[in-house]
Recover the amino acids of this structure.
């Protein structure tokens, strides 16, 4: 029993189990800090997931990050994965510096969201984007990621696109293009 | 409902007046009125997430249909269960479920025991009404014990609930959203590389073929048909109280003799009994307990017969592993004794031997393939015989798999004669029978340990305090003036409570029995599907009936065990016991 982990040696009960992957100390510390900040607040898990993704250089939740979160929040791994895959905001794959999410719900579609998507992809040089609910494209310079979502639930404002987490409503291709160019120059959305 | 504190509510179901306790669901009221309402996601005592919609009824004055599994009754409510609207809605619900379901019944493990299949029949589904909308998900067949086929999953959530609430393992949860919603382990990994302990409780509650045991009946038939192999079988205590049920007899049928006969008809060379090894376990475990208690060893000592429980503590509480008895489970003790002692005695080449066990358990499949479980092979090596490494136990089949083999071989079970087990590994006592019920190992150990310690027999053989289905039960045994506090827990949720006490240093016990499944092995994950507490109670009664009917009821009185120690093992905890009957544990990282 020489290889007992630290959690094991402390005699602490766990719902996560000992991890087969070594999690880096930096990640562990950072997640522990978020967990401490949000503990006992409503939606703590959502907030910790959000903060961890935001602080990640590639704006995503890696397997290790999810493991660290489960451990720090004393939540089962399957539960953390469940939440992380339910909300479209979270990404389990690396994303560019700016994230564009195009809503492909029925209302948005009727009001031209396909055009918005195509325009964006063309502008960022994406060649083979096979549309699928979970498809995503990241530019080679890792500046932009384009994703689609089945529905944002903002149908009254259709068509909507989220740019770095901010919902832009009643968009036209030219308005969207302008917004993307603005953030590309480092400006506001 | 005789309790005077309970307020009663009067309502009518299809015009028939019925009175139920307030707070009851409409579903309960319908049942009380003798009306059967179909349910899929709802499972009494396990899950109630009201997601499927098949249980709808009409309530006078309500605009939409009402899900009867969650909606509670109110006074004067008028419920209609079979109007045009209700019947059409229910059928549409099932047709929508079938849109994304393969037409696979003929080749499906649940053909004939599938709730979705019988629901489709009952709702009058006669066509493929809607086109498929979700992509066909991949099967997860990496595990030794559990196979997942998400294409057959109807997202009822029962497995998620049982894994989280009953077992506190939470290996699976819903993942994704919309059309991609699925039941998944962490990162959509293979279930076998997650915290899953292979307990199989999810396979009992799954209404469809989405979660099943790994079926190994073909492999066992192949060995039975191979003239070069000597195939012997052992049957766990709980099988005799459930095999009948799996073959269509009433729950609680005790079929020990017919089971032995059926196994012989299937072609097993010897029909042995895991109960022999259960008696052996008691000799070793009772001695280990007394040794720990007298030498300042780690207490409480916790039983180690239940492999799902072993995986659980290895995964979640590795620092408490020294509390586990080092005794192998009866299945594994049997394997290593059969392939050494019996093989030599019978003059059988151990490498040609195939040990098949019939278990109430899916985790036994996993246990049999633990890499360290090759002690017979190592023993023969010490005797100078170098074979290709073989396992002590080759196949662990569930009750359900044995029932399948019996049906496939065309054996008319009810017409079989009552037969006995073969000697010497078929001899057992009542103490071994009760291993099949929660509390049984404790009671069996008490019968022997008391006598080993005091030289006197226990005043009464029936230890009522540790019987029953209460989640955690405790008792104080008086061993010649020395009190010994013991506890019994079943399901991993209750085991967790005991472990938390030990970790906190507040556990008052010297000896603890833990069984993974509700009710113990009689409620095991390899037993007939869809159990409820009524069926578990009937199986339990059968087990204690068997105990009372046997002449020998204490493990140390088993003559074959005495002989095994006299001519082979020496004494309990001796050198050979250590090699063949005891094991080690390790932290399990996932
Ligand atoms: S799960 Fe049920 S309905 Fe589906 S293929 Fe199997 S038997 Fe048929
Ligand atoms: S086998 Fe047991 S632990 Fe594994 S998923 Fe099923 S219920 Fe959970
Ligand atoms: S796997 Fe079975 S029990 Fe689990 S959600 Fe799917 S159908 Fe229900
Ligand atoms: S059984 Fe009531 S909603 Fe599923």
């Amino acid at each position: 029993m020489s290889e007992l982990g630290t959690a094991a040696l402390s005699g602490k009960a766990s719902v996560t189990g000992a991890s087969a992957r070594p999690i880096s100390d930096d990640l562990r510390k950072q997640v522990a800090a978020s967990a401490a900040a949000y503990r006992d607040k409503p939606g703590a898990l959502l907030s910790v997931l959000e903060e961890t993704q935001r602080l990640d250089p590639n704006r995503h939740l890696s397997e290790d990050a999810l493991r660290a979160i489960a451990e720090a929040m004393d939540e089962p791994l399957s539960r953390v994965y469940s939440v992380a895959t339910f909300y479209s905001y979270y990404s389990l794959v690396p994303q560019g510096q700016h994230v564009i999410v195009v809503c492909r719900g029925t209302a948005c579609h009727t009001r031209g969201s396909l055009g918005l998507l195509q325009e964006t992809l063309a502008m960022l040089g994406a060649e083979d984007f096979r549309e699928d609910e979970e498809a995503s494209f990241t530019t080679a310079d890792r500046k932009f990621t384009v994703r689609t979502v089945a529905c944002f639930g903002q149908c009254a404002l259709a068509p909507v696109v989220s740019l770095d987490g901010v919902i832009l409503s009643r968009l036209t291709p030219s308005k969207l293009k302008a917004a993307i160019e603005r953030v590309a120059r480092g400006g506001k959305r | 409902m005789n309790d005077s504190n309970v307020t009663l509510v009067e309502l009518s179901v299809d015009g028939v007046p019925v009175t139920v306790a307030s707070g009851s669901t409409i579903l309960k009221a319908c049942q009380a009125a003798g009306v059967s309402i179909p349910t899929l996601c709802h499972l009494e005592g396990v899950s109630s997430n009201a997601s499927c919609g098949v249980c709808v009824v009409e309530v006078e004055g309500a605009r939409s249909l009402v899900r009867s599994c969650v909606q509670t009754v109110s006074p004067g409510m008028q419920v209609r269960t079979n109007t045009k609207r209700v019947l059409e809605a229910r059928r549409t619900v099932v047709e929508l479920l079938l849109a994304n379901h393969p037409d696979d019944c003929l080749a499906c493990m649940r053909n004939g025991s599938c709730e979705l299949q019988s629901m489709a029949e009952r709702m009058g589904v006669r066509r493929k009404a809607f086109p498929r909308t979700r992509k066909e998900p991949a099967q997860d067949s990496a595990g030794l014990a559990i196979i997942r086929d998400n294409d057959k999953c109807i997202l009822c959530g029962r497995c998620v609930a049982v894994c989280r609430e009953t077992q506190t393992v939470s290996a699976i949860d819903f993942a994704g959203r919309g059309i991609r919603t699925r039941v998944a382990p962490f990162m959509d990994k293979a279930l076998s590389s997650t915290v899953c302990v292979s307990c199989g409780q999810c396979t009992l509650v799954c209404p469809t073929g989405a979660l099943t045991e790994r079926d190994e009946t073909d492999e066992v038939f192949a060995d039975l048909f191979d003239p070069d192999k000597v195939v012997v079988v052992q049957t766990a205590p709980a099988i005799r109280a459930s095999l009948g049920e799996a073959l269509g007899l009433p729950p609680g049928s005790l079929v020990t003799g017919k089971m032995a006969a059926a196994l012989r008809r299937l072609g097993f060379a010897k029909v042995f009994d895991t109960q022999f090894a259960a008696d052996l376990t008691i000799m070793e475990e009772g001695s280990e307990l007394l040794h720990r208690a007298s030498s300042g060893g780690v207490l409480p000592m916790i039983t180690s017969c239940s492999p799902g429980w072993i995986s659980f503590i290895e995964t979640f509480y590795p620092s408490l592993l020294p509390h586990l008895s080092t005794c192998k489970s009866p299945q594994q003790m049997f394997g290593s004794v059969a392939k050494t002692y019996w093989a030599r005695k019978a003059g059988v080449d151990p490498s040609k031997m195939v040990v098949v066990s019939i278990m109430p358990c899916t985790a036994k499949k996993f246990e049999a393939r633990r890499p360290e479980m090759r002690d017979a092979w190592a023993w023969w090596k010490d005797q100078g015989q170098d074979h290709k490494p073989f396992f002590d136990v080759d196949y662990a089949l569930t009750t359900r798999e044995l029932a399948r083999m019996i049906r496939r071989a065309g054996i008319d079970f009810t017409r079989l004669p009552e037969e006995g087990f073969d000697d010497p590994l078929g001899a057992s006592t009542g103490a071994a029978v009760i291993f099949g019920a929660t509390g049984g190992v404790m009671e069996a150990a008490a019968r022997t340990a008391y006598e080993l310690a005091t030289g006197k027999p226990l005043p009464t053989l029936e230890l009522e305090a540790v019987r029953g289905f209460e989640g955690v039960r405790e008792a104080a045994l008086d061993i010649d003036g020395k009190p010994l506090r013991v506890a019994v827990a079943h399901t991993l949720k209750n085991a967790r409570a005991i472990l938390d006490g030990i970790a906190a240093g507040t556990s008052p016990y010297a000896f603890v029995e833990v069984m993974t499944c509700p009710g113990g092995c009689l409620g095991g994950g390899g037993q007939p599907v869809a159990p409820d507490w009524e069926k578990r109670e009937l199986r339990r009664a059968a087990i204690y009936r068997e105990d009372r009917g046997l002449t020998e009821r204490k493990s140390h009185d088993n003559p074959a065990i005495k002989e095994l120690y006299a001519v082979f093992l020496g004494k309990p905890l001796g050198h050979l016991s250590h090699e063949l009957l005891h094991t080690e544990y390790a932290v399990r990282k996932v």
The CA atoms of residues 32 and 72 of chain A lie 6 Å apart. Residues B 101-102, 104-105, 108, 110-111, 114, 116-117, 152, 208-209 surround iron/sulfur cluster (ligand 1) (CB under 6 Å). Helices of chain A lie at 6-9, 25-38, 44-55, 63-73, 77-86, 106-110, 113-124, 173-184. Chain A is about 40% helix and 10% strand.
